[in-house]
Amino acid sequence: MSVEQQQENPETRARQHWMGVLAKSAGSTLQQHWQALSLEPEYQFIRQPETGLTMLRGRVGGSGQPFNMGEMTLTRCAVRLASGTLGVSYVAGRSPQHAITAALADALLQEDDTQALLQHELIEPLQAHLHAEHQQRAAQANSTRVDFFTLVRGED
Amino acid sequence: MAVSSHELIAGFADPVQASQQVFRSALKAMSEPGTLMQIDYLQQAPKGLDLSTWQLALSVFDPDTRVWLSPSLAASDAVVSNLRFHCQCPLVETPAEADFAIALHRELPLLIELNWGTAEYPDRSTTLVVQVPALSDEAYWTLSGPGIEHTRALRIAGLTEPFRSDLIRSRQRFPLGIDTFWCCDNRLTALPRTTFIEETC
């Protein structure tokens, strides 16, 4: 079965972005920010959080032939709010709570009256946190960089 | 067809336990043909599917199960979306390609259109799941064969004449054949290819 190409529109792109941030953030950091908001939406599970393996596929240089890189653990969940909005999450690791919170946040981010609040109070701080972590890791890696210089040989 | 999110309904509350219990019921129905089983692990099914059909689907379908749906089920957004979301099963165009075919009693495919398996691999046949208006143990059919000590009575409502005689005659092609599940509301029974059917009324 081939993956259908999603229609690229700003709404899809925005949702991809926040789902990415929710999935990549550490469970504890997400929980901390989520609890600070003290939102307690009413919801029902469409799919209970369940943990499984998924195959990661990569392409050499981002454009070569696809290859199977390895498997990772993943937890997924789907919830429906009382208003009918569906929230879905796929997060790394085996934390059901992380998956539930991410799914709830995804659903609330699609609701007009909570979107701005969550973008501002949840996604932006998490994004900043991720960015800082990334910078720090890049800086650590950078300090071990070895530069090789090749002297240009003169013409014989 | 993409999954439409507003049609999705909840799956099993406890997927591991419930799907094993449902599988156990399906196995009992298949091994003691004509036994009426009641399965109640869900209160809601997608519009168009009976509770028993939906629970059977949730417990046995997976991404490697090819499923064919009879025309009005295939046209139902609720049925297709929920099967794709919860079971991730590929939906096929013709009953002959399917591992499982789900049909309403008034849209039954001809038995000959299904996959009967081959002499080497009779187990690769299509399993037919039919939703019927009524199921009971009234003595319309007398069943006998493996899994039945003497005889067992069964009534499946809503089957047309050519289909009934096709089903009864299909026993002559053993080991090839079609195994069938019959669903009505939250009840289910099964008639594997080994069961002889005799019409009493």
From TrEMBL, chain A:
GO BP terms: organic phosphonate metabolic process; organic phosphonate transport
Pfam family, one: PhnG
Domain of life: Bacteria
NCBIfam families to which the protein is assigned, alphabetical: PhnG_redo
Protein name, per record: Methylphosphonate degradation complex subunit PhnG
Organism field: Marinobacterium halophilum
TrEMBL record, chain B:
SUPFAM superfamilies given in the database record: PhnH-like
Alphabetical list of InterPro entries matching this protein: PhnH-like_sp (IPR038058), Phosphonate_metab_PhnH (IPR008772)
GO biological process: organic phosphonate metabolic process
NCBIfam families, A to Z: PhnH_redo
Name this polypeptide is given: Alpha-D-ribose 1-methylphosphonate 5-triphosphate synthase subunit PhnH
